[in-house]
Design goal:
The chain is α+β, with helices and mostly antiparallel strands and 340 residues long. The protein contains six helices and 18 strands. 22% of the residues lie in helices and 29% in strands. It is globular. Bound molecules: pyridoxal-5'-phosphate.
Length: 340
């Protein structure tokens, strides 16, 4: 095999040795299958292709300084996938089966787990699709669950640093009572134009307000938002954002650090009052926000004039990373060692 240049991996797809699969047929989940094929052969009338019966997840395995491989809160990913299944009428995959398949696929692709020093990790992508044929708009009667893995580079190549965001009003990602709280492909298709618009304008990511009133903060790209002020961690309550596992963890860590935690609606104007702001998700843990521009009213909310992440964001980031890498005690029992 060609040597992998661990230090220069990006967030892209690289083929690995195996993926694991499980099919739902006749009302039940079958046996776990191991596959070395990168393709799936499905019926042209499969519901995933026509009616968006598709869900995915994203999590990572980390090679730690003690040599072990850990996965972070995979039970939460399993639970979120189950919630998505309820949202678009797909059969729920049991947590035990989800975890067993994660462990199997990580083991089978051990040689693709990046070394600790590289800062890279093994990205784990579970995917559930309706494979049964339908022409009318109905749930499928057969499903395929697949997990593949691919090594990905560290999010911050040049160190932990801030990024500029822009509020996009032209396009909504999800409706207030739509599928924004589920991890379904349609939400990401709906976000492509806003994301391109933000990039074309020179921003690192798009920022969404609530779709109904365009008044409250929703999400930033594929990450949740949080702001810090007066020793308080504030994050939006909204019916159209994805419940981020990173955000849930940061809320707990903020509390552990003695901060107050508020989950509530955040009016756009309140952005002006935050001392720090960040986008959080599996990809970066925290991507500190330098500024958010609102081109419609010409306002610019600046959190970091010097481009440096704030002290609370830095503390939260370091603490969560240290737990993921088994460096600091995992007092909440969030990590699972999947390889000794
Ligand atoms: C729309 C959206 N919001 C937030 C997140 C962050 O969620 P998590 O912390 O579970 O990765 C993601 C990534 O999964 C996402 O796609």
């Amino acid at each position: 095999m060609k040597e992998i240049d661990w230090a220069n991996l990006s967030f892209g797809y690289m083929p690995t040795d195996y993926n694991v699969r499980c099919r739902w047929r006749d009302g039940a989940w079958g046996e776990i299958e191991v596959s070395s094929s990168e393709t799936i052969n499905i019926h042209m009338a499969a519901t995933c292709l026509h009616y968006g019966q598709e869900a995915f997840e994203g999590l990572k395995a980390y090679r730690c300084p003690d040599g072990k491989v850990r996965v972070f809160r995979m039970d939460e990913n399993a639970a979120r996938l189950q919630s998505t299944c309820r949202g678009i009428l797909m059969p729920e995959l049991p947590t035990d089966l989800f975890e067993e398949m994660v462990r199997r696929v990580v083991h089978l692709n051990e040689r693709f787990i990046p070394p600790y020093e590289s800062g890279a990790s093994l990205y784990i992508r579970p995917l559930l699709i309706g494979t049964g044929a339908q022409v009318g708009v109905h749930p499928a009667d057969e499903y395929l669950f697949v997990i593949f893995v691919t090594p990905v580079g560290p999010y911050f190549k040049g160190g932990f640093s801030t990024n500029p965001y822009v509020i996009i009003r032209e396009f909504d990602r999800a409706a207030p009572l739509g599928t924004g709280i589920y991890k379904v492909g349609g939400n990401y298709a709906a976000s492509l134009r806003a994301n391109k618009m933000a990039h074309d304008l020179g921003y690192s990511c798009e920022f969404y307000l609530d779709a109904k009133e365009k008044k409250y903060i929703d999400e930033c790209g594929a990450a949740n938002f949080f702001g810090i002020k007066n020793n308080t961690y504030v994050t939006p309550a909204s019916t159209s954002i994805l419940p981020s596992i990173t955000n849930k963890s940061l809320m707990q860590l903020a509390e552990d650090l003695g901060l107050k935690v508020e989950r509530r609606q955040i009016p756009e104007e309140e952005l002006a009052t935050f001392e720090e702001a960040g986008a959080c998700g599996t990809a970066a843990v925290i991507s500190p926000i330098g500024r958010i521009d609102d081109l419609e009213n010409g306002r610019s909310y600046v959190f970091s004039p010097d481009g440096q992440p704030g002290p609370v964001s830095t503390k939260l980031y370091n603490r969560l990373r240290a737990i993921q890498y088994g460096i600091e005690p995992d007092t909440h029992g969030w990590t699972q060692v999947v390889m000794e």
